Q: What sequence folds into this?
C-alpha cells in the first residue's frame, strides 16, 4: 500500500530533479555561448593587433610581429594560437600557418567567426578583411587568428558545475522544506484518523468537515453519505426486531395456549375445533410476518430493483388473489382497467402495495359490501384507486393511519395496524402521491395513488 506522504514527495521531488537536469543542460549551452562571446572578443583583438602590424615594403606585404608579441596573444597556457595572413580574394599565403582552414566565404565588412578542425583539434577562428596602403594601390588582405577551445570548455564546465551545485543545494533545502510541509499538511488527516479510531462500534454520526483540508471535504462527504446509509440500515434492523418482538409475542403465546388446550382434548370434534383456531392463528401470524418483512424491504437506505412494469396487469393479478378472502365475507370484489398502464418500480414492493390496499379494504368492509380496484391514466400519470363502502376513516384520523400500529377508533376489525404504514413506506420509496378521501357515494373510503409523470 503506497503512503500518501511518499506519493506526494515523489511527485514533487522527481519532477524537480528532472527540471534540474534540464536546467543544467540549458545552462551548459548558454555558458558555452557566453564563453564564445568573451573569448571571441580576445580572438578579434589578436587579429586586429596582427592587422595593425602589416605594411607594404618594396611592393611586398610585411608582417612585423615578433615571437614575444605572438606569445602575449595567448588567452590560456593550455590553448594554442594559430594565425595566417593571405591576399583577398586570391587567397595567396603571405605569413603564418599556410594550412589554416579558410572561411567558407570571404570576410566582408564585419569579422567572420567559425569553427573548424586543425591538426586533429577543434579550433575557433576569426577572419577579417584588412586593407594596407601601397604607393600605388591599397591592398585587401585576410587576417585569420585561431585558438583551440580547451579554455572555453573549462570556463563553461566551471560555470555550469558551480551553478548546478548551487541549484542542487537549493533543491536539497527545498526537499527538506517540502517533506516538512507535507508532514504538516497531512497532520489534519492523522487527527481525523485518530478521531475515527476512537469512535465506538455503534457511533455512526457524520464526520465533522470543518477541521480538514478543503480538498478532502468531498471524500468526507462521501464517507458520511455511506455512513448514513449504514445508519439507516442499522435503524431498520433495530425497528424490525422491535416490531417483530412486539407483534409476534402475543400470537405465539396464543398459539402455545391453543396447542396446550388441544392436547387436553379427548374427543375428535373438540380437538378439531381447537386445531381450526390454531390454523386461523397461524394464518394471522404468517400475515404479520409477511407484513414485517415487507416493511423491512421498504425501509429507506435499501437499494431498489427498478423494472418496467404494467400496473394494470400487476394490480389485476393481486386483486384476483384476494377473491377467496372476498368470497368468504360475501364481498363483491371488482377490477376496472383493461388498458396497459406502464410504470417503473420494484415488482415485489408494488405487489405488496396492492395486496395491502385490497386486503385492508376487504378486512374493514362489512359482509355483503363492495370493493373496487381501479387502474387508469390521469392526465398522463398512472393512477391506482381502491374504493370500498365500509365505515371509512374520520378526516381527523386520516393522517395518523399511515403510522405503524395505529388502528382507527371507529373500526372493530382485527388487524395489526401495519397495512397502510407499509403502503406509505413503499409510496415514499417510489415518489408516489397517496391520498385518502370519502367514497364516491359519500360513504366508505377511496385511497388514490398517483405515480410521478
A:
Amino acid at each position: 500500500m503506497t503512503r500518501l506522504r511518499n506519493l506526494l514527495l515523489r511527485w514533487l521531488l522527481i519532477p524537480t530533479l528532472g527540471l534540474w537536469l534540464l536546467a543544467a543542460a540549458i545552462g551548459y549551452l548558454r555558458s558555452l555561448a557566453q564563453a564564445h562571446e568573451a573569448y571571441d572578443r580576445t580572438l578579434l583583438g589578436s587579429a586586429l593587433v596582427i592587422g595593425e602590424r602589416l605594411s607594404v615594403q618594396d611592393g611586398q606585404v610585411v608582417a612585423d610581429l615578433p615571437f614575444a608579441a605572438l606569445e602575449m596573444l595567448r588567452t590560456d597556457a593550455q590553448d594554442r594560437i594559430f594565425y595566417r595572413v593571405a591576399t583577398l580574394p586570391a587567397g595567396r599565403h603571405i605569413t603564418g600557418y599556410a594550412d589554416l582552414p579558410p572561411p567558407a566565404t570571404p570576410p566582408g565588412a564585419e569579422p567572420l567567426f567559425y569553427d573548424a578542425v586543425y591538426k586533429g583539434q577543434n579550433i575557433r577562428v576569426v577572419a577579417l578583411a584588412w586593407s594596407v596602403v601601397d604607393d600605388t594601390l591599397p591592398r585587401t588582405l585576410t587576417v585569420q587568428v585561431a585558438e583551440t577551445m580547451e579554455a572555453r570548455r573549462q570556463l563553461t564546465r566551471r560555470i555550469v558545475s558551480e551553478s548546478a551545485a548551487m541549484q542542487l543545494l537549493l533543491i536539497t533545502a527545498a526537499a527538506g522544506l517540502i517533506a516538512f510541509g507535507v508532514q504538516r499538511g497531512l497532520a489534519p488527516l492523522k487527527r481525523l484518523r485518530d478521531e475515527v479510531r476512537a469512535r465506538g462500534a455503534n457511533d455512526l454520526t457524520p464526520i465533522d468537515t470543518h477541521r480538514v483540508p478543503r480538498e478532502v471535504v468531498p471524500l468526507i462527504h462521501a464517507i458520511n453519505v455511506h455512513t448514513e446509509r449504514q445508519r439507516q440500515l442499522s435503524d431498520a434492523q433495530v425497528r424490525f426486531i422491535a416490531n417483530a418482538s412486539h407483534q409476534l409475542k402475543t400470537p405465539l403465546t396464543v398459539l402455545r395456549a391453543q396447542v396446550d388446550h388441544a392436547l387436553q382434548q379427548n374427543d375428535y370434534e373438540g380437538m378439531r375445533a381447537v386445531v381450526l383456531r390454531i390454523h386461523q392463528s397461524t394464518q394471522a401470524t404468517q400475515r404479520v410476518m409477511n407484513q414485517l418483512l415487507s416493511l423491512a424491504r421498504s425501509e429507506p437506505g435499501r437499494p431498489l430493483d427498478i423494472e418496467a412494469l404494467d400496473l394494470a396487469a400487476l394490480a389485476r393479478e393481486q386483486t384476483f388473489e384476494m377473491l377467496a378472502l372476498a368470497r368468504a365475507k360475501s364481498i363483491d370484489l371488482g377490477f376496472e382497467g383493461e388498458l396497459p398502464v406502464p410504470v417503473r418500480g420494484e415488482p415485489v414492493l408494488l405487489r405488496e402495495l396492492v395486496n395491502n390496499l385490497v386486503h385492508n379494504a376487504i378486512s374493514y368492509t362489512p359482509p355483503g359490501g363492495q370493493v373496487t380496484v381501479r387502474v387508469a391514466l390521469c392526465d398522463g400519470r398512472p393512477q391506482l384507486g381502491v374504493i370500498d363502502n365500509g365505515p371509512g376513516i374520520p378526516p381527523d384520523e386520516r393522517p395518523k393511519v399511515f403510522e405503524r400500529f395505529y388502528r382507527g377508533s371507529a373500526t372493530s376489525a382485527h388487524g395489526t395496524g401495519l397495512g397502510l404504514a407499509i403502503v406509505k413506506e413503499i409510496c415514499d420509496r417510489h415518489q408516489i402521491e397517496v391520498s385518502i378521501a370519502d367514497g364516491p357515494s359519500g360513504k366508505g373510503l377511496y385511497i388514490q395513488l398517483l405515480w410521478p409523470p
